[in-house]
Specification:
Radius of gyration: 22 Å
Distance between the termini: 61 Å
CATH superfamily of one domain: HUPs
Low-confidence stretches: 46-52
Strand order of the largest sheet: 12-15-14-13-16-17
Number of helices: 9
Helix content: 25-40%
């Protein structure tokens, strides 16, 4: 019997999750490794070779590490769950003129919920992942805080986790930098793993061509949406586009419109198949509305609260005010923010701590 308990470790076959499992094993936890098959590349229509966490090489790498260190490893098939929650939502959001963040939805509805169910079935006390975040507890609330490696911090994609999930989660890597984890992989005898490159594309779109993915998945989408209007800020028509789902707020390249100056997508209006263009200055907005909220550090928002707000993964954050008793939540920035894309996550920070987050409904010009 382990002195620390039994932990189910999500092992993708990459350096982070492998070191997580080996680290916990060395610390005295009874480790059970699990690799999740979320997506079948044969049905994606992509021409690119399988990459990331769902290919056979990754499964084999995870299993080999488990066998070598004497703990069990399982592969679980969650393709049906993943397809329902993540793939369907991804398509629906683009059809609604929004830009989704499938990694957040996957964390919220798939990885943690699926892991907890399997943890219970395997009599595990905890689950663990190789994310670069820290877990804190104050006043009976569990919440995530930034990892010390600013370049690897993944707190932005963790805002949707429930208290039940967080209360049973271990994040061993939050106190380390990526270079240190690669050194640990070397010390464990895995030089190839230590040098293994990272995958940044959406896991179910390995060629990074989301437009092609939508065309393959939605019957006659291209024909139904092609030929809509590009309009300028004043409503004047300036051209036709390939279909509103194939654009995102802030996009500059690939518009096919010659205006004699740089132009950007500033708004998408799916009800009229219209894409609004403007100059860079037109991308800045002083406020936004956020819905589908999840509060971590506090159980709710009893009064207006100052926070630092991130509107995308690599956003450094902008100070602003979260207005209590507004539905959807009204967020006002201290200074206008560029390229707020509906469908992306808005995450609210107090220092390094995640207060909570939600989905951007729309930006406001006020």
């Amino acid at each position: 019997m382990s002195k620390h308990g039994r932990v189910l470790v999500a092992m993708s076959g990459g350096v982070d999750s492998t070191v997580t499992a080996l680290m916990l094993h060395d610390q005295g936890y009874e480790v059970v490794g699990v690799t999740m098959k979320t997506w079948d590349y044969a049905t994606s229509g992509s021409s690119k070779k399988e990459t990331g966490c769902c290919n056979l090489d990754s499964f084999n790498d995870a299993r080999a590490a488990a066998v070598q260190h004497g703990f069990p490893h399982y592969i679980i098939d969650i393709r049906e769950e993943f397809g329902h929650f993540v793939i369907d939502n991804f398509i629906e959001e683009y059809l609604a003129g929004r830009t989704p963040n499938p990694c957040v939805l996957c964390n919220t509805h798939i990885k943690w919920e699926a892991l907890l169910r399997r943890a219970d079935a395997l009599h595990c006390d905890y689950i663990a992942t190789g994310h670069y975040v820290n877990l804190k507890q104050e006043n009976g609330r569990y919440f995530v805080s930034k990892g010390i490696d600013e370049n690897k911090d993944q707190s932005y994609v963790m805002w949707g986790l429930s208290q039940a999930c967080l209360s049973r989660t271990l994040f061993p890597l939050g106190k380390y930098r990526k270079a240190e984890i690669r050194e640990m992989a070397l010390s464990y005898g895995y030089p190839e793993l230590a040098r293994k490159s990272e995958s940044y594309e959406i896991c179910f779109i390995p060629d990074n061509d989301y437009r092609g993915f939508l065309k393959r998945k939605v019957q006659d989408l291209e024909n139904r949406t092609r030929g809509g209007k590009f309009v300028w800020q004043d409503g004047s028509e300036v051209g036709t586009h390939e279909g509103y789902p194939f654009y995102t707020v802030g996009q500059r390249k690939g518009l096919g419109v010659a205006m004699g100056k740089p132009v950007y997508v500033t708004d998408i209006l799916p009800e009229t198949n219209t894409v609004v263009l403007g100059e860079e200055q037109d991308l800045y907005r002083p406020a936004m509305e956020v819905y589908k909220l999840n509060w971590l550090k506090y159980p709710d928002l009893p009064k207006d609260l100052r926070a630092t707000i991130k509107v995308r993964y690599r956003d450094p954050g902008t100070p602003g005010i979260l207005h209590a008793n507004t539905d959807p939540l009204l967020v006002r920035f201290d200074k206008p923010v560029k390229g707020i894309a509906p469908g992306q996550s808005a995450v609210f920070y107090e220092g390094n701590d995640v207060i909570g987050g939600g989905i951007i409904l729309k930006s406001l010009k006020l």
